[in-house]
Amino acid sequence: MATTAELFEEPFVADEYIERLVWRTPGGGSRGGPEAFDPKRLLEEFVNHIQELQIMDERIQRKVEKLEQQCQKEAKEFAKKVQELQKSNQIKEAADIIQKLHLIAQELPFDRFSEVKSKIASKYHDLECQLIQEFTSAQRRGEISRMREVAAVLLHFKGYSHCVDVYIKQCQEGAYLRNDIFEDAAILCQRVNKQVGDIFSNPETVLAKLIQNVFEIKLQSFVKDQLEECRKSDAEQYLKNLYDLYTRTTNLSSKLMEFNLGTDKQTFLSKLIKSIFISYLENYIDVETGYLKSRSAMILQRYYDSKNHQKRSIGTGGIQDLKERIRQRTNLPLGPSIDTHGETFLSQEVVVNLLQETKQAFERCHRLSDPSDLPRNAFRIFTILVEFLCIEHIDYALETGLAGIPSSDSKNANLYFLDVVHQANTIFHLFDKQFNDHLMPLISSSPKLSECLQKKKEIIEQMEMKLDTGIDRTLNCMIGQMKHILAAEQKKTDFKPEDENNVLIQYTNACVKVCAYVRKQVEKIKNSMDGKNVDTVLMELGVRFHRLIYEHLQQYSYSCMGGMLAICDVAEYRKCAKDFKIPLVLQLFDTLHALCNLLVVAPDNLKQVCSGEQLANLDKNILHSFVQLRADYRSARLARHFS
Predict the structure, then answer these.
(1) Which residues form the Exocyst complex component Sec10 N-terminal domain (predicted)?
(2) What is the pTM of this model?
(3) Residue 558: beta bridge partners?
(4) Whole-angstrom Cα distance, residue 391 to residue 384?
């Protein structure tokens, strides 16, 4: 076929075509040549060539028919398009005419031209409906240019707003297919924002109307469905849903702020949000505080139930209450103390749960409160935290702990109040952190700041007063335990042995047990407190410890060897005092150690020792009182040397 095609030349001449075919065929020549003339071979070549020409003719014919059909189709489409354009132009011309007629008809008197006016109005309405229908069809076909043309014509008609409504309605068809309606709305508005300027002459107005439609119909319906179901039955879920929906709505509003929506888009979007949530936000804080109270009460009750504990009534005003308050402020034995079995009735888990609930309430309050109501609402939440955390939990534990402190003369008393102190300090740090992190930002620029600070100050002062009372009584109990040890273990013969030459011990058994007890209490105090509180309490314990040992030593008479043993005891007490790491306490025991030297020094050296550096500034009566404890004090020689 390729060979056959090559034989064609323009212009085509049949004789020349056959001549070229003969010359190309082997054995087809008539005048000599390498091969003799072969008529059979030439005939065969002609037959084959004719078949090829027939096949080629069929193919060309089919191609011609296909091209003719395509040409006819394109001609029809072109004609149709021309017709549509002509029709479109007639519509535009008709719209212009009917619009002018409509304006003129407004000026004509009705009684004379009622029929004319009616016909014009009817034609105006029909044409308007046709234009809107054309716009609808063009939008469905996605023909932006046609939509722009029709919208431009409709701009001067009353039905222009209906055209916008149709556009807004059709834009939302199939737009909400995901599970996230807010994300769907954002994508829809972004898509419309890109095309609305190509269709309408006032794109910002159309986009604003779309957004208004989305908020007032789609979002409002969704929010209502989500909130009304749990509004009365489940306050916790209601508050969570309200916070989540409001947050997502405001986030959507922030995204929409990027678009041109007219002059004051901030106010426009704020009004839309308010229209959705106003009925829920009006009483939000009442729902919030009501839920927080019931939730906090449940958390506390669940904790006390787990301890099989029935909360005592604190401060009822009865006789028992009066006794308890007197016992808390004095060391008078007004009956047995309450046995708490080592339970502090403070729970860090409870505290964390209460603070977490309050933190979430503060976050919701910040988001859902009107700016003018925010400080007042935050204060209401704070008062609930104070009520349940500080009063119902911490204060109750302090009162119970105080009631559980035994009297100072109790034997083998278990002192758990320091555990209460330790936990209360930890809890108050958490309370203070939430006050600073979550409450302060909500009230910092309002009069409620001073009110909150004052309330916090009062709470802290009340707690500190009870902690101080409990610590003071606990220290008295410690001293009481030391007294019991000394009374039980110290013997008169310890300091006035029958055989002065057969004393083998380095210090008395009473001293060993007292020091062991003191070291244990010092460690407990250090673990229970922090900062300057540790030094303050250890100083107070150290001073009382010194007074106890001082008065204890005053009860005995000392032989020379007994005096040496007393010095050894005091030296051990002084080692114990070093653990306090309080200079004053160590100084007191240094002085006591020096005083004990008066029990053993030779009579001739008494005046010299008394005028030494550690004793020179002491009152003479104190020095004399120690010298009088010597077994040989009544000897004329000793009295003469000390006078």
Answers:
(1) 39-90
(2) 0.73
(3) 630
(4) 10
